[in-house]
Structures are given as structure tokens and as C-alpha cells.
């Protein structure tokens, strides 16, 4: 490439950059507006501060999530232990019911049934006794009437 082609390329490059205002070329030899440089520096510092803050907040969120996860793992372990202990207690209570309490309840039920039968027998006996008494009184009255004559 010749020097003339390079100049033309540089002119073309500058012309293209002027057509796109969002693009800028920074060359050390070009003079810049000091206010613009100061504002750009402030903007970059503030953007840096903002991004650092966002990254720090994200990191703090991850640390908080890790701590929450550790606490949840501990809590679930405690709940699991509690559930195991409850299951064990319920099984022991069911076994105790089946071996000790259920036979006693069955015995009470049998006694209640026997008492019902005994009570029915007592009522029948009472009724029969009243019938016998009435008949005895009737017989005595008949004998007394016969003797009186």
C-alpha cells in the first residue's frame, strides 16, 4: 500500500466516524475538551462504582442464600429427627395398646356382657319371685278361707 492509499484510508476512517456520532476515536495527539474529559472520567468512575455495588450486592445475596441453605439443612435435619422419634413413639404406643390395653378392654367388655346377662337373670328371678309370692299369698288366702268355714 502506498502512502497515498493510507491517507485516503485515514480520511475515509475519519469521515466514517463523523457519520456515526456514537463512535469516537481517541487519539493521544488530538486535543480534547477538558470538561468533556472530566465528565467522561466521572461517568466512568460512577459507572465503575455502580457496577462494583451491583457485584457486591449480588455476592452478598449469594452469601445470604448460602447461610439460608445451611439453616434450612439444619432445620430439615432437626425435623427429620423429630419425625423419626415421633414414629418410634407412635409405634411403641401402638404396640403397648395391642399387648396391654386391648386385652384389658376386651376383659372389661366381657365383664359388661356377663353383667348384662346377670342383670337380665336377676330381673327374671325378681319377676318369678313376685309371681311365687303372689301365688303363695293366694294359697294362704284360700287355706285361711277354708279353715274359717
Describe the structure.
The chain is 89% helix and 0% strand. The model has no long low-confidence stretch (mean pLDDT 85). It has 149 residues and is mainly alpha-helical. The chain is built from 2 helices and no strands. The protein is rod-shaped.
Fold topology:
Elements: H1 3-19, H2 34-148
N-C termini distance:
174 Å
Describe the sheet with the most strands: none
The amount of beta strand, in percent, is under 5%
Question: What is the H/E order?
Answer: HH
List how many beta strands DSSP finds: 0
Overall shape: it is: rod-shaped
As a whole number of angstroms, the C-alpha radius of gyration is 55 Å
Helical stretch tally? 2
Low-confidence stretches: none
Mean pLDDT: 85
Oligomer: single chain
Computed structural class = mainly alpha
Query: What is the percent of helical residues?
Result: over 70%
How would you briefly describe this protein structure?
The chain has helices spanning 3-19, 34-148. The chain is mostly helical and 149 residues long.
Task: Sum up the structure in keywords.
mainly alpha; 2 helices; 149 residues
Amino acid at each position: 500500500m502506498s502512502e497515498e492509499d493510507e491517507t485516503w484510508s485515514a480520511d475515509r476512517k475519519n469521515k466514517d466516524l463523523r457519520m456515526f456520532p456514537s463512535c469516537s476515536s481517541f487519539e493521544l495527539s488530538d486535543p480534547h475538551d477538558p470538561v468533556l474529559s472530566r465528565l467522561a472520567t466521572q461517568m466512568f468512575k460512577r459507572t465503575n462504582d455502580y457496577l462494583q455495588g451491583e457485584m457486591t450486592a449480588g455476592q452478598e445475596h449469594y452469601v445470604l442464600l448460602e447461610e439460608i441453605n445451611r439453616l434450612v439443612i439444619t432445620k430439615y435435619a432437626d425435623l427429620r429427627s423429630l419425625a423419626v422419634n415421633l414414629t418410634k413413639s407412635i409405634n411403641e404406643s401402638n404396640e403397648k395398646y395391642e399387648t396391654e390395653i386391648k386385652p384389658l378392654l376386651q376383659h372389661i367388655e366381657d365383664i359388661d356382657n356377663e353383667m348384662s346377662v346377670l342383670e337380665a337373670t336377676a330381673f327374671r328371678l325378681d319377676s318369678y319371685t313376685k309371681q311365687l309370692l303372689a301365688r303363695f299369698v293366694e294359697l294362704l288366702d284360700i287355706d285361711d278361707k277354708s279353715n274359717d268355714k
